[in-house]
Amino acid sequence: VRGDCAALFHDDLDYVAKAIRLSFHDCMGQSEGYGCDGCVNLNHRDNIGLKGIMIKLRPIVEKYEEHLSRADTWILCALTALEISTSSQFPMTYIGRQSCKDSDDIGDGGEKYDIYGDEGGTSKILHHFNKYFGFDERCTVAVMGLHGIATMKPKNSGHGNGPHSATWVKSASHKMTN
Q1: If 0-12 CB within 10 Å is exposed, 13-18 middle and 19+ buried, where does residue 93 land?
Q2: pTM, whole model, 2 decimals?
Q3: Which residues are CB-contacts of 39 (< 8 A; sequence separation ≥ 6)?
Q4: 67-91: per-residue pLDDT in tens?
């Protein structure tokens, strides 16, 4: 799986950031005890820009579906993306996630929810990531910064300067350098 993910990412480095972002959006939901389920509702504004990576990962998911759920494959690809962007090793420590049943073949489906609401602000975001992931302020800022390691265009991440891209570090958009 990691080899297939790495090949995909080396063909197009924009998918490095998108795979990492997909893994976090996959792990969000309203239900108590929710977790990574291989399912993202593409009708939700927070998930703008994820369809492309979900389509790109579908052949990898299908290749390994006898042994791994879509949720596990997405996490393995995200870990591979982190390794490419940081030159660190990230082992897979758990296999056995269950993929949601109410999605299509790329993983579009599941709950449509607003975690922070329109006026969430910094304190709600910090609280959420601490409560559900044990993240402190530094880790939360790093995760939120993932929205910017690829070219920031609204079609990619829902963020950016209108139709114009907004990059933070020139010539290093696939590296976690900010």
Answers
A1: exposed
A2: 0.75
A3: 26, 70, 71, 99, 100, 102, 103, 107, 108, 109, 110
A4: 999 999 999 999 999 898 887 899 9
